[in-house]
């Protein structure tokens, strides 16, 4: 983008946007969500406190992808800071539960942030 060229991935994303039309998750997003949920489920079976898939996506993955697409990728230290924030949130979670409605194992498309 520095030299005026828009990366192909950004063009593909923009071409997929259809204002006012319902959208389904892409196969890549669905598969990534399945992989991440499997990791969260393993942690939960070990008795570890775990975030929901939506919390993981919003607080860790989204910033990682955002910086990778629009700026310089985050360093390992910066990425670790995102994970630390997420784990801190989970460790200090109120008894009312996660930030999103639905069980941690619900597909990400079914989890909606509380308003």
Automatic annotation (TrEMBL):
Report the Gene3D superfamilies cross-referenced here.
Tetracycline Repressor, domain 2 (1.10.357.10)
InterPro entries attached to this UniProt entry: Tet_transcr_reg_TetR-rel_C_sf
Superkingdom is: Bacteria
List every stretch annotated Disordered.
94-115
State the protein's name. Answer: Tetracyclin repressor-like C-terminal domain-containing protein
Species name: Isoptericola hypogeus
